């Protein structure tokens, strides 16, 4: 990236939304590498914490693990605490951030009288004018198709649609490919319902509050979606 582009994107925050299987994780990774952003993938961070053997005796974390495995969004206060701490650390370093799928609930986004939500924190740390919210949109049928036919690298977490490849190892890092526990049709439908009922309202309120909202068609091939996203930077 050239110096001019670095200056333009200095201290910005991008929030990337989309239903399960929309490719937000892939696009976050691509944009983070292209624009020098810290890729804060909340789902990956949560799975790391929840599946860490060191936390097997932590009652709160084990409770959250059960919730996560069922396809239900984790307790908002639990997630917000993790997001707030990480965001403030990165802001102090002068690092721009891209969030993959977070904040996922109204509480995580806007907080309450005692707890500032992530958007409040970002507005203070980065400035409202430097916050972009991107919504990748795909039909419900495509969500179910993609999630029920994909495998994930056990090491770098890169997703691959199994119908297009019979590979057993990751093409990027040679890690073993495996199914995610929450990638079955019943759990996918639960996750989709959670997204519609608990995450989409954030976009409506953010739009009302005059945040910059960008809507992208996520149905085309990933490289086409990526090309379209770059038009906004």
UniProtKB/TrEMBL annotation:
It is an enzyme of class 2 (transferase). Pfam families: ADK. Gene3D superfamilies: P-loop containing nucleotide triphosphate hydrolases. Keywords: ATP-binding, Kinase, Nucleotide biosynthesis, Nucleotide-binding, Transferase. The keyword Kinase applies. GO terms for cellular component: cytoplasm. Its EC number is 2.7.4.3. The keyword ATP-binding applies. It is found in: Cytoplasm. Monomer. Belongs to the adenylate kinase family. This is Adenylate kinase. It comes from Candidatus Wolfebacteria bacterium CG10_big_fil_rev_8_21_14_0_10_31_9. The lineage of its organism: Bacteria, Candidatus Wolfeibacteriota.
């Amino acid at each position: 990236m050239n110096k001019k582009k670095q200056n333009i994107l200095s201290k910005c925050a991008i929030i990337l939304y989309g239903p399960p299987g929309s490719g937000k994780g892939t696009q976050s990774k691509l944009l983070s590498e292209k624009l020098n952003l810290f890729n804060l993938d909340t789902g990956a961070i949560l799975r790391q914490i929840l599946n860490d053997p060191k936390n097997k005796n932590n009652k709160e974390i084990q409770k959250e693990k059960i919730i996560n495995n069922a396809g239900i969004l984790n307790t908002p206060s639990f997630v917000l605490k993790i997001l707030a701490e990480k965001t403030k650390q990165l802001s102090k370093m002068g690092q721009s951030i891209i969030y993959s799928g977070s904040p996922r609930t109204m509480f995580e986004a806007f907080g309450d009288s005692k707890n500032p939500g992530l958007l409040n924190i970002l507005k203070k740390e980065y400035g409202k004018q430097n916050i972009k919210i991107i919504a990748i949109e795909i039909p419900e049928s495509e969500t179910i198709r993609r999630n029920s036919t994909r495998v994930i690298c056990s090491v770098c977490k890169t997703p691959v649609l199994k119908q297009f490849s019979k590979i057993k190892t990751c093409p990027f890092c040679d890690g073993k490919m495996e199914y995610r526990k929450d990638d079955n049709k019943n759990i996918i439908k639960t996750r989709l319902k959670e997204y519609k009922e608990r995450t989409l309202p954030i976009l409506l309120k953010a739009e009302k509050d005059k945040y910059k909202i960008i809507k992208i068609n996520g149905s085309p091939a990933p490289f086409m979606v990526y090309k379209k996203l770059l038009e906004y930077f």
